Amino acid sequence: MRKLKFFLAAFLCCLTGLLALPCGIGGAHAAETEYYIGGMTAGFSLSAGGTEIIALNEVVAEDGVHRPAEDAGIRTGDTIRAVDGVRVKSIADLNAALERSGGRAVKLTVRRGGEDAEVEIVPVRDKKSGKYKIGVLIRDTLSGIGTVTYIEKGTRRFGALGHDVCDENRNPLEISDAQVFLCSVVGVSKGSRGKAGELRGLVMNDEPIARAEKVCKTGLFGTFEEGYDFSKLQTVKAAPLEEATIGRAEIWSTVDGIAPQRYTVDLVKVDANNRENKNFVIKVTDGRLIEETGGIVQGMSGSPILQNGKLVGAVTHVFLNDPTRGYGIGVEKMLGN
Question: Which among 143, 285, 293, 333 is least buried, having the fewest CB atoms inside 10 angstroms?
């Protein structure tokens, strides 16, 4: 098992409105289709859209200490997307490009604040390793946890999170060999007034349970692997927003281990026309959940909301001034992706 790295700004941007791809809206087909109820916590590993710089450092060469990246004006948070016009998607791609340079100047295409710019830089041969370096610490993937909302019976298509996905600089992420892993929740940082709590988890094994294929403002979508065991999951039909009403409902979430539990909530506001996908205001009423987590915490995004035996939406946000309250999205806005 390996520990996941979390979370607030590093993986899920719950309060932004970035759009990576257009999303479909479920219609008559959704009303007839059966969906496995989610609620299981999953670990997601997504491409950073290049090689993201997480720190600047020095390169010790035969002739002394150099700081190529810093001298070229590169900053922490920048993403290197290409070297001499050739796209780099991973740390291996970048290292190979620097080796090919042989120490000559190269042009990096760097993304900062949603815009690309070219920066010229001279790689330096590291005295210890003999490799050409530019003085950066980088990563090419971002990881975190969230909750699967539903899996369509038959097609195995899933929807999760219920909100957009971006990095800590609020840049949308790219889908490239994005994997989904079964995650066991091993701890909870309880939410309190003014501070969001979060789930902490471990990936159960190195074999993904699903592949993510699309991100957009209504969540993360993809397909579960054929070998996944659906035998213990319950199925429901989805309901359009017009059928949701103020009153009692339930959410399915995993806050310990791998098994989802039902928790009671109230829908205190229903707004089918909200353009920010905040279609529900949710009030947690279940004493067990409040005792364990303080209410809604990060990692619970995507927890399915059921009312009158139908899937109506997913949890998306927590109120920072009251962790027992949060927002939810209507599931019809997630379906069809």
Answer: 285
- Decide if 116 contacts 109 (C-beta within 8 A): yes
Check: CATH 1.10.10 for 2-47+148-333? no
231-242 pLDDT per residue, tens = 999 999 999 999
* CATH fold label, 58-134: Pdz3 Domain (2.30.42)
- Catalytic residue annotation: 163, 286, 301
Q: Which residue has the tokens 């309190």?
A: 192
Mind listing the pLDDT tens digit for each residue in 166-217? 655 555 555 556 789 889 999 999 988 888 899 988 888 778 899 988 888 8
Exposure class string for 66-85: b at 16+ Cβ within 10 A, else e: bbbbeebebeeebbbbbbee
Every domain of the chain and the residues it spans: 2-47+148-333, 58-134
- The full 3-state SS of the chain, as one line of letters, equals CEECCCCCCCCCCCCCCCCCCCCCCCCHHHHHCEEEECCCEEEEEEEEEEEEEEEECCEEECCEEECHHHHCCCCCCCEEEEECCEECCCHHHHHHHHHHHCCCCEEEEEEECCEEEEEEECCEECCCCCCEECCEEEEEEEEEEEEEEEEECCCCEEEECCCCCECCCCCECEEEEEEEEEEEEEEEECCECCECCEEEEEECCCCCCEEEEEEECCEEEEEECCCCCCCCCCEEEECCHHHCCCEEEEEEECCCECCCEEEEEEEEEECCCCCCCCCEEEEECCHHHHHHHCCCCECCCCCEEEECCEEEEEEEEEECCEEEEEEEEEHHHCCCC
Backbone phi, psi, residue 335, to 5°: -70, 155
pLDDT at 324 over 90: yes
Task: Tell me what the pLDDT averaged over the chain comes to.
Answer: 86
